[in-house]
Amino acid sequence: MKPYYSARSLFTTLALATALGAPPAGAAQTDISSVPLGTASSTTVLPNLMFILDDSGSMGWNYMPDNVNDNNCKTYVYQSGGNTATACGLNSGTNLVSPTQDNVRHSPTNDWMVGPPAFAAQFNTMYYNPQLTYSPGMNASGSQMTSYGSPWTSIPNNPYAAAPVNFNLTTAYPEAVFCKNSNDTPTDDDKCRRNGYDAGSPPTLLASFRYSNVSQPGNGTYGWPEKTSSGEPRFIRMRFGGPYYYTILPREHCSDINLTTCTLSSTPTGSFTIPAPVRYCTTGTLANQDAVVSGGTPAFCQAKLDGSHTNMRYGTFVRTDIVSSVTTYGGRPNRTDCVAGVCTYAQEITNFANWYAYYHTRMQTMKTAGGRVFSAMDDRYRIGFVTINAASSAKYLKIDKFDVTHKSDWYTKFYSQVPNSS
Length: 422
Prior knowledge:
Elements: E1 12-18, E2 47-53, E3 75-77, E4 84-86, E5 90-91, E6 111-112, E7 155-156, E8 166-167, E9 173-179, E10 192-193, E11 235-241, E12 244-249, E13 252-254, E14 262-264, E15 274-275, E16 278-281, H1 284-288, E17 301-302, E18 311-314, E19 316-321, E20 328-329, E21 343-344, H2 345-359, H3 362-374, E22 382-387, E23 396-401, H4 404-415
Parallel strand pairs: 2-22
Antiparallel strand pairs: 1-2, 3-4, 5-6, 7-8, 9-10, 9-11, 12-19, 13-14, 13-15, 16-17, 16-18, 20-21, 22-23
């Protein structure tokens, strides 16, 4: 597995080499077709494509880009032999994770995310985005794989695996909560607090809240836990229920794509038309202050993480629980599975189930996207397969005519890959 601090992101390389023989001396210049390969009706010399897959360990991660990691998120302290857990990741090896459903995890390495940023698509682009329609994968035959509709009680963690683990999405989706005692029942709302909920009894969803990547901001609107002293909600426990996600609403809009010159406004105004749900600042003070942060040389805050800008400045977070008591989910103009931008509960949880099954890790996204693209290819092409760690025949398939047999072999080889190399 590659180093955790590597900057490599998800990628696929398609190498296209057209096998054209050298013309005889004095022959006329070869006539190059002006028709795209994908729509050509026929070809004399079949195009050769080699599909190269990244099978490194990072392809099993459930976050992207690489800076969505523990080092760039607020650290939560809990009492377990002096260990700490972080806002992005929590390893299931701690004794604070409920053992009864410990096999239900978000990534193949049995890690689970904790803080709201990891569950917001504006920060963690691998997580569920309610603006997208998540289509199932494809079989070699061109048929679509299972779409996980009602009753959502047996959703696989990886339908491409030989033995996927199934779980009930309506009752067993994990959530990290923060309890006053290490043995508190995670569903005890008097002793345990949930991100996105107030501290009332019973707790209710917050309309929106601020989140800090600086430890113990001392402000109840910045997520939990706030403190680490005795009697405070400081122990990380796991509870299980329905799926959820966060949306980061911008508090600032900027006039430049680099998000350096901005104004404090949740809507576009004047020349400030570019929303800034997440910016990276030079200090934690700048990242967490309520007033606008704009300008500076170098820029106080900007759109990208670099060696000088390592502190996240977030907008406001809004939590959405996908539960049967909420019958409609609006504000989704680009969703093809819903009507006029409004989704029913069934449509929303089905979309979430398909995201989890087919897209929730980098490798599952790659298999689903690649499988859908190549399903339209046929014997007018010669296609092969190889990984960047091709140490055995299990990771290689020669280029050959993409007929029914070879296409089936290609899909089998592709879908069997497991990310575990460096």
